[in-house]
């Protein structure tokens, strides 16, 4: 067994020596690989990633069920308590970020690049500031040559019918957004990657703000509709009460000295009408205040644990690593040629001859 192991080690050492003996070939391959690696590294766009961490409030009514669910999840058991919860819960936040409607709503956000210091929309930044690698030029040329010219369109982008370019931009943004939700603590970590560090920080802050607005709008939709309804009733009841009050006052002032039963009956009727309008108005005021309190109660609160910061270091693969990896692939290709492929080609030519 030791002899086999020793012979195996000798074979490996011999193979390495055989590859290193071809110094000129190895030098050419490594040189070409290094040049190719430099070209790839310079053509690859740097990317920067920043994140924001926030924690949503936990309602007191759901504390017991959520605690049981957390205990069960630690043992790998799903109690499926979400059926009695809202339709929007933390686990589907990534799906919200991935929707075309949400992504397109980000296009109008004003961003400022760190290098140029120019302010533009996020859509303009994505369209004009990206670096296209050289190996993509043939595909872009063929695609532009084959695709039909689209009529110039103005206004907002239609999520229902995206152009190829806009669809590609949406896919790029979708891949740039990250959202992780801790099932046990419900802490949300939102990350944003962009070619510019300042834009990455601005968009990460925008994402957490838009998410809070989206969730708040959903959770308070019904109570806000109720509030709007009671505000309408409040305006109508107040107008009716003021009208009845003025009518009663004008009638009473005009007929102060009247002692006829007819005038007294009419005055009592107007007074009763005014009192009825006041009771309705007073009841709606109470309901309006209750509706406002419900809106405040249903509005979720978020605590930002970590705000986004402008990253100083790129999150993409360093260019030096790209060059080293390309040279390693070149060395592997050279080794395969020297050890296997070259002899295989020679033997095949000999057999054919």
TrEMBL record:
<dbReference type="GO" id="GO:0005886">
    <property type="term" value="C:plasma membrane"/>
</dbReference>
<dbReference type="InterPro" id="IPR050445">
    <property type="entry name" value="Bact_polysacc_biosynth/exp"/>
</dbReference>
<protein>
    <submittedName>
        <fullName>Chain-length determining protein</fullName>
    </submittedName>
</protein>
<feature type="transmembrane region" description="Helical">
    <location>
        <begin position="25"/>
        <end position="43"/>
    </location>
</feature>
<feature type="transmembrane region" description="Helical">
    <location>
        <begin position="321"/>
        <end position="341"/>
    </location>
</feature>
<dbReference type="GO" id="GO:0004713">
    <property type="term" value="F:protein tyrosine kinase activity"/>
</dbReference>
<keyword id="KW-0812">Transmembrane</keyword>
<keyword id="KW-0472">Membrane</keyword>
<keyword id="KW-1133">Transmembrane helix</keyword>
């Amino acid at each position: 067994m030791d002899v086999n192991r020793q012979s195996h080690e000798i074979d490996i050492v011999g193979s390495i020596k055989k590859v290193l003996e071809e110094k000129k070939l190895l030098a050419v391959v490594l040189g070409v690989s290094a040049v190719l690696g430099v070209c790839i590294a310079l053509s690859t766009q740097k990317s920067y990633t920043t994140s924001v961490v926030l924690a949503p409030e936990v309602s007191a009514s759901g504390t017991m069920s959520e605690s049981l669910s957390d205990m069960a999840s630690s043992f790998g058991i799903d109690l499926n308590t979400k059926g009695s919860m809202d339709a929007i819960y933390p686990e589907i936040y990534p799906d919200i970020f991935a929707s075309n409607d949400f992504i397109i709503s980000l296009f109008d956000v004003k961003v400022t690049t760190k290098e140029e210091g120019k302010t533009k929309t996020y859509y303009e930044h994505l369209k004009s500031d990206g670096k296209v690698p050289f190996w993509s030029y043939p595909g872009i040329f063929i695609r532009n040559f084959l695709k039909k010219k689209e009529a110039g369109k103005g206004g907002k982008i239609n999520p229902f019918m995206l152009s190829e370019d806009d669809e590609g931009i949406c896919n790029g943004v979708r891949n740039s957004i990250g959202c992780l939700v801790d099932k046990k603590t419900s802490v949300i970590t939102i990350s944003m990657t962009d070619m510019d560090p300042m834009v990455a920080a601005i968009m990460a802050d925008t994402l957490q703000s838009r998410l809070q607005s989206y969730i708040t709008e959903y959770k308070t939709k019904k109570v806000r509709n109720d509030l709007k309804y009671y505000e309408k009733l409040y305006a109508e009841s107040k107008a009716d009460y003021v009208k009845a009050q003025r009518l009663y006052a004008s009638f009473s002032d005009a007929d102060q000295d009247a002692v006829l039963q007819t005038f007294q009956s009419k005055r009592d009727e107007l007074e009763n009408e005014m009192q009825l309008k006041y009771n309705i108005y007073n009841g709606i005021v109470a309901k309006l205040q209750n509706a406002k309190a419900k809106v405040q109660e249903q509005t979720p609160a978020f605590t930002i644990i970590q705000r986004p910061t402008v990253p100083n270091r790129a999150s993409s693969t360093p260019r030096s690593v790209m060059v080293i990896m390309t040279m390693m692939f070149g060395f592997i290709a050279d080794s395969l040629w020297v050890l296997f492929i070259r002899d295989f080609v020679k033997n095949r030519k000999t057999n054919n001859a």
